[in-house]
Amino acid sequence: MFTPDRAFSGFAVADIDEAKTFYGDILGIPVSLNEMGILELTLGSGATVIVYPKPDHEPAGFTILNFDVDDVEAAVDDLNARGVTTKIYDDADFPTDEKGVARGMGPEIAWFRDPSGNVLSVLKGS
After folding, report:
1. Hey, is 64 helix, strand or coil?
2. 120: helix, coil or strand?
3. 4-123 is classed in which CATH architecture?
4. Global pTM?
5. Would you say residue 13 has pLDDT above 90?
6. How many Cβ atoms from other residues are within 10 Å of residue 1's Cβ?
7. Most buried one in 6, 8, 26, 120, CB count within 10 A?
8. Per-domain residue ranges for the chain?
9. For position 126, what pLDDT does the model report?
10. DSSP line for 4-30
11. How many angstroms separate the CA atoms of 91 and 40, rounded?
12. Cβ pair 72, 101 in contact under 8 A
């Protein structure tokens, strides 16, 4: 019988070791490598996201993971201090300030990429 109780999400990366370093060491997310060579990220909410290697990986054309934060500017400063670039959009569709923060188009948000080119964000949710 179908039940959504144990649902989880996942996405692909080009290099699993590089992803483990980025998500675990740089972003500070608890990461484990399972017996199939797939990373399991344990988010603060308790949810699990799997990250699997894909040799012919192409980054998604959309944001794959969002981090709800209390203060986007402080989160951006922290990410920048960790070596993460948050200024990835600079066009009419996504006007951002010098740090990469978009304001006035919905929630305050800044995007960044993982080593495989997947787009992530920090945003002020509710």
Report:
1. strand
2. strand
3. Roll (3.10)
4. 0.91
5. yes
6. 2
7. 120
8. 4-123
9. 66
10. GGG--EEEEES-HHHHHIIIIIIS---
11. 34
12. yes
Q: Which two tokens stand for residue 115?
A: 């080593």
Contacts of 116 (CB under 8 A, 6+ apart): 12, 13, 14, 15, 18, 19, 57, 59
In the chain, how long is the greatest CA-to-CA distance?
51
- pLDDT tens digit sequence for 24-49: 999 999 999 999 999 999 999 899 99
pLDDT digits (tens, 9 = 90+) for 102-113: 998 889 999 999
Q: Residues for the chain: how many in total? A: 126
- Whether 8 and 48 have beta carbons less than 8 Å apart is answered as yes
Structure tokens at 41: 């990220």
Cβ neighbors of 55 (< 8 A, separation 6 or more) are 14
Q: Give me 113's structure tokens.
A: 């990429």
Give the chain's mean pLDDT: 93
